Amino acid sequence: MKWIIVGLGNPGGEYGTTRHNTGRIVLEHFRTAHDLSEWEEKKPWKALSSGGKAGKAEVLLLEPETMMNNSGKSLVTLVKSKKQAEQLVVIYDDLDLPLGKWKFSFDRGSGGHKGIESIARTIKTKAFVRVRVGVSPVSLFGKMKKPHGEDAVVKHILGKFSDSEMKGLDKVGKEVVEGLNVLIKDGLDAAMGQFN
Q1: How does pLDDT run across 11-34, given as a tens digit for each residue?
Q2: I want to staple 79 with a disulfide (CB 3.0 to 4.6 A). Which of 3, 52, 123, 127 is the partner?
Q3: Consecutive H or E run containing 130
Q4: Name one GO molecular function term (predicted).
């Protein structure tokens, strides 16, 4: 069965290097690591897609071309059962983790992330794999400083990564590629055991 791997973000060049586009940025690491096809617009899915083989598994990569809050629209015709949802992986920015950290999770709440809420609502289940990539700032002493209040959160997630933050995200991207390789080959328990 085919794995569907989705990188969340907002379409359009102005959002390219914002923290809210972390899912897309990290997914691009996976695409290039496996030399998958170039991005192609798929109007019926309201998404850009790429695909091919990752190891022995077939994968379909998606970047929804809707705004974040409507990310689920890209999966309406692709994920129609709970069984299919178990082969769905969604990569996204998470304010509950510091920049430089990431985690697998499965079958849990959205943590207030509108893209995850949209997907869960559309496919009618929370039982899909998430790759949560931290975007909260870290102090000089290594403590996470999560922004508080709606204005501060919006300003932070729509802000652009600095050059040094992008270097950190590149490192995370390489780790996520390794994690996804284990997930696809050996399953979720193995991937969570090794990387969480």
Answers
A1: 988 999 999 999 999 999 999 999
A2: 123
A3: strand 129-136
A4: peptidyl-tRNA hydrolase activity
